[in-house]
DNA sequence: AAATTAAGCAACCAAAAAGTTGCGTAATAG
DNA sequence: CTATTACGCAACTTTTTGGTTGCTTAATTT
């Protein structure tokens, strides 16, 4: 499909997916699909699709128990985003000065 | 359209746009649309559209000079991404321990 | 055993996104 | 003045995305 970091970026680019991810992060336990549905105004299948996207990005892990599928957020992949951004931080504010710093270190 | 941070996320979610942004960041001067085109295998209009998306996210600023439009990257909006991520950093590695830290500070 | 519940799958739909081509126009070069 | 260049605009195509509904299956309840 697309490379890993693109999957992560795309996953968090959607506001509803960010909401779902957030809900899972702050949940005290893993949540089933139905439990997640309860918090949002979209259909179960809609939620399922978002969860799948998040899962493929590694931002959600799922463990099946009986007929239920419990979802847990995993923030780890966001490290990759952080890594990606590290390069560009040099260019925040007073781009020219920091560009100098960048050139120095290379 | 959509809120500001979503625009930023969406802008950088596309790999070609990340490439263009990168090319602009490391360029020693502002680049015209045509100059940017030279580095990528899509049509000029394709580039123009990507530039527009980046511009709307605040990641590119444009100054017109005669018939040319010179583009410059601005990394500043990425700060917002960094801000957004700050919350989730607590949950990297050993989620449980860090969750404790999060609960303490709230 | 029958009814209910949790969820997957597939098909479908509408809107957005990524990209193209064609044409017009204003600035610059010859 | 003419030719060329840099670009915007508009229309159009294809893919992707966000979302839906209907149906099925497998676990649970009652």
TrEMBL record, chains A, B:
<dbReference type="InterPro" id="IPR036388">
    <property type="entry name" value="WH-like_DNA-bd_sf"/>
</dbReference>
<dbReference type="GO" id="GO:0003700">
    <property type="term" value="F:DNA-binding transcription factor activity"/>
</dbReference>
<dbReference type="InterPro" id="IPR001845">
    <property type="entry name" value="HTH_ArsR_DNA-bd_dom"/>
</dbReference>
<keyword id="KW-0812">Transmembrane</keyword>
<keyword id="KW-1133">Transmembrane helix</keyword>
<dbReference type="Pfam" id="PF12840">
    <property type="entry name" value="HTH_20"/>
</dbReference>
<feature type="transmembrane region" description="Helical">
    <location>
        <begin position="20"/>
        <end position="42"/>
    </location>
</feature>
<dbReference type="InterPro" id="IPR036390">
    <property type="entry name" value="WH_DNA-bd_sf"/>
</dbReference>
<protein>
    <submittedName>
        <fullName>ArsR family transcriptional regulator</fullName>
    </submittedName>
</protein>
<feature type="domain" description="HTH arsR-type">
    <location>
        <begin position="1"/>
        <end position="93"/>
    </location>
</feature>
<dbReference type="InterPro" id="IPR011991">
    <property type="entry name" value="ArsR-like_HTH"/>
</dbReference>
<keyword id="KW-0472">Membrane</keyword>
């Amino acid at each position: 499909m697309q490379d890993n970091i693109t999957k992560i970026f795309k996953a968090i680019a959607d506001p509803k997916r960010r909401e779902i991810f957030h809900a899972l992060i702050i949940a005290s336990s893993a949540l089933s699909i139905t439990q997640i549905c309860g918090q949002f105004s979209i259909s179960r299948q809609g939620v399922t699709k978002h969860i799948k996207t998040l899962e493929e990005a590694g931002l959600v892990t799922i463990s099946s128990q009986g007929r239920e599928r419990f979802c847990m957020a995993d923030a780890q992949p966001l490290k990759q985003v952080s890594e990606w951004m590290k390069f560009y931080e040099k260019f925040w504010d007073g781009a020219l000065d920091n560009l100098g710093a960048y050139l120095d270190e290379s």
